[in-house]
Write a sequence for this structure.
C-alpha cells in the first residue's frame, strides 16, 4: 500500500493566522482526499484533490477557507486560513490504494487554535 | 447518503477476552468496507479491507465479516491485549465514491 508522509504532526496557532499542511505520497496517485476530525467526532471529508484541476469541496467547506494545492501526482497541501478556535481538529490526508489495500491515511496533523 | 453507525460507542474489557465490534451501513450497494484503528491524536491505520464479493477477512487475531444484504459488518478481536486499546472505525463508500466513517468504538483493554 502507499506510504504517506504528513507534516506537521501538530501545531498550536494564533487565531487569525493560517497553517499549511503537507502530504507526500511515495507513489503516484490520481486522487488525494483531505479530512477533518473534530474533537470526539468521526472523520468528515473536506475536499478531493485531483492533479491539474480545482479541488472538489464538500458541502460546508469552501476554497477561501481551505485552499488546496495539487502540483503533481505525489504531493498536496491543505491550508487552514484565518483560523479560529473552532478549527481546532485533526486534519488527515488520504489516498485510495490498489484494490487490495483500500484507503491509506497520513499520520494526521493535530491543530490547536488559541 | 450513506450513513455508518457503530455500536457500542465505548467498550472496556479485561485482557484475554474475545470481543465483537459492530458496524451498520444504510446503502448496501458498496464495493468494499474497511476497518481502521486510531490511537489518540493520531492518524488511521488500516486493519482490514473486505471486498463486496467476500464474506470475511482475517489478519492475525482480527476477523472482519461483511453481510451486504443486512447492511452489517463485524470486527472480531480474539484474546484481547492492552495494546489493542484504541478507537476502531469502519468506513463504507457512498455517493461520489466518498468514504463515510462511523463514529467509532473506543476500546479499552484492562491488564
Amino acid at each position: 500500500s502507499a506510504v504517506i508522509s504528513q507534516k506537521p504532526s501538530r501545531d498550536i496557532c494564533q487565531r487569525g493566522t493560517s497553517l499549511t499542511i503537507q502530504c507526500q505520497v511515495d507513489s503516484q496517485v490520481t486522487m488525494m482526499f483531505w479530512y477533518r476530525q473534530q474533537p470526539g467526532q468521526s472523520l468528515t471529508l473536506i475536499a478531493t484533490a485531483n492533479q491539474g484541476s480545482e479541488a472538489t469541496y464538500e458541502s460546508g467547506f469552501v476554497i477561501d477557507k481551505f485552499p488546496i494545492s495539487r502540483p503533481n501526482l505525489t504531493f498536496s497541501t491543505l491550508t487552514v486560513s484565518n483560523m479560529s478556535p473552532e478549527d481546532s481538529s485533526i486534519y488527515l490526508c488520504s489516498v485510495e490504494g490498489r484494490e487490495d489495500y483500500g484507503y491509506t491515511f497520513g499520520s494526521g496533523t493535530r491543530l490547536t487554535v488559541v | 447518503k450513506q450513513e455508518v453507525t457503530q455500536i457500542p460507542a465505548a467498550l472496556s474489557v479485561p485482557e484475554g477476552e474475545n470481543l465483537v465490534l459492530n458496524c451498520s451501513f444504510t446503502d448496501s450497494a458498496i464495493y468494499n468496507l474497511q476497518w481502521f484503528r486510531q490511537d489518540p491524536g493520531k492518524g488511521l491505520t488500516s486493519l482490514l479491507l473486505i471486498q463486496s464479493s467476500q464474506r470475511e477477512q482475517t489478519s492475525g487475531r482480527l476477523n472482519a465479516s461483511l453481510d451486504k444484504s443486512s447492511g452489517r459488518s463485524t470486527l472480531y478481536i480474539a484474546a484481547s491485549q492492552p495494546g489493542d486499546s484504541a478507537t476502531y472505525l469502519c468506513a463504507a463508500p457512498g455517493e461520489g465514491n466518498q468514504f463515510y466513517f462511523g463514529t467509532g468504538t473506543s476500546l479499552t483493554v484492562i491488564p
